[in-house]
Amino acid sequence: MIDRLLSTEMMDLVQRSLDAASMTHDVIANNMANVDTPGFKRSTVVFNETLRKAMEARSGATQHLAMDRTDARHFTIDAAPDITQIQPKVVTDVTTTLRNDGNNVDIDREVALLSQNTVWYQTLAQITQMQFASLQSAIAGGK
Hints:
The chain has helices at about 1-5, 10-35, 50-60, 105-140; strands at about 45, 90. Helix 2 packs antiparallel against helix 4 (about 105-140). The protein is about 55% helix and about 5% strand. The protein is mainly α. It is built from four helices and two strands.
């Protein structure tokens, strides 16, 4: 329990997720602001799916024997990905068009995504708050 409480990797992942959620909010707001701009192409933030895949690969890698590399030129086999290095990326969707003017922003979809992202951000903020409250309680001796 205390290991998970003090885990810097877990806090780093929560912080990165908060950063990605904040970036997502900015990107969605930009999409909504340009709903009537001819030729505008909507953007999205890619982070959660990349993180999920890396965590799945990491958990799968720990089920196998670890391979040691004795030379930098050797291949890595079942190397667990470093999930702390995953960064959110903004990707523009240039493959679709919803209107004759080339714009591909669907305002209803953007509003739904904004609501979903707001709930996700609030959840991450509460996790952070609970972690700090637990640390404060541990420091205060449970009083």
